[in-house]
Amino acid sequence: xxxxxxxxxxxxxxxxxxxxxxxxxxxxxxxxxxxxxxxxxxxxxxxxxxxxxxxxxxxxxxxxxxxxxxxxxxxxxxxxxxxxxxxxxxxxxxxxxxxxxxxxxxxxxxxxxxxxxxxxxxxxxxxxxxxxxxxxxxxxxxxxxxxxxxxxxxxxxxxxxxxxxxxxxxxxxxxxxxxxxxxxxxxxxxxxxxxxxxxxxxxxxxxxxxxxxxxxxxxxxxxxxxxxxxxxxxxxxxxxxxxxxxxxxxxxxxxxxxxxxxxxxxxxxxxxxxxxxxxxxxxxxxxxxxxxxxxxxxxxxxxxxxxxxxxxxxxxxxxxxxxxxxxxxxxxxxxxxxxxxxxxxxxxxxxxxxxxxxxxxxxxxxxxxxxxxxxxxxxxxxxxxxxxxxxxxxxxxxxxxxxxxxxxxxxxxxxxxxxxxxxxxxxxxxxxxx
Length: 434
Hints:
The protein is an all-alpha fold and 434 residues long.
C-alpha cells in the first residue's frame, strides 16, 4: 500500500488496517452498473447492435463516475456530521474501517486526503488508534500457527471406513492424555476442532478436554476452552469456565464468553451474566471485542441490559454492540428498545438498519408504545431502502391506530414506491384484523 508523502501516525494508521482487519464489508451498491453491463453483454452477441452497444458501455462508464462522485461527497458529509456532533473518534474509526476494505481501495485518494485532514485536527486521537492497531497486530502475529494432525483428521472425517474412524478417534484421545507434550496437545486439540464435523460421540472427549483447562500452557488452555462446547461441555463445567475470566492470558479470555454461552444455552444466567460483564470490562480491548461478538442475544437482565446500552455509546464498541448484542436480544426490555430507537437516527445504515431489524421481534409489551412512536418519527425521514423496509416490518409488530393515518398516507402517495406502499398496506391489513 502506498503511504502518505508526509510521515506520521496517519500513514501508520492506514498501514495497520491492511494487517489487522481481514473481514471485508459491503461496498457501495453497484447493481445498476451490473445491470447495464449485462445488457451490453447481451447486445454484443449481435453484430447489428453496435450503436446501442456503445451507448450501454458509455452508460456504465458515466454511472461509475457518478458513483465515485457520490462516494466522495457522502464520505465528506459523514465526516462533517461526526465532527459537528463532537464525535471525532467515530470519524477516524470510519476512515480506518473503509481503508481496510479491499473493495474500496479504488477510493484510496479520497480516503487518504480525509485521513490527512483528521490527522492535522486530531493528532493525539489518530496516534492513539494507531497504537491500538499496532498492538492488536503484534498480538495476532505472536500467536504461533498450530497445525492439526492432518492424516488423523482425514481419517476421522472420511465416511467409508468406520473402523478406521474409531481407531483414529482412540488415537486422538491418546494424544490428549496427561503424558503428551504441550505441543502435541495443541495439535491434537486443533485436530479435534476439525474432527467435530464428523459423526461420532463428541461427548466422549469431554473427560480428556476438561483437565486441559488447567494446563500450564496458555495455548492449550485457549484451545481446550474453545473445544469444550463441541466436546459436550455441561452445566457442571460452567463454574470452572467462568473463573477463566481471570486467566492471565488474553487469548484465553477472548474465548471464554463463547464457551459459556454455547454450554449454558440461555440458562444459568447467575453464572454467565456476571462473567460476561467482567469480560466486557477487560483491560484488553480485543478481549472485549471478541466476547461482544459471541453474545447473540441469549441473555438479558436489568443490570446487564443497562451495561450493554452504556457500552454501545462507546465509539470503539458502538457498532458491534448494536450488531451482536442489543439487536439480537430475544426479549428486548424498555431500555434496550429505547437505545435501538435512538440508533435509527444513525446515518450509517449498518447501524440504523441493524437496529431496525432488531426491533422486528422480541419487543416487550411495555416497550411497544415507545417503539411505535420512534418508528413513526423515523420512517418518513429514512432514505436507505433496507433500513426503511426493516422499520416497516418492525412497525407491523407494534402498530396501533396511532399508525393508521401515516400508513394510509403512504398507500395514497404518488411519491412512494410500490414496495413501500405494499409494506404499509400490509401493516394496515394486520391492524384491521386485530
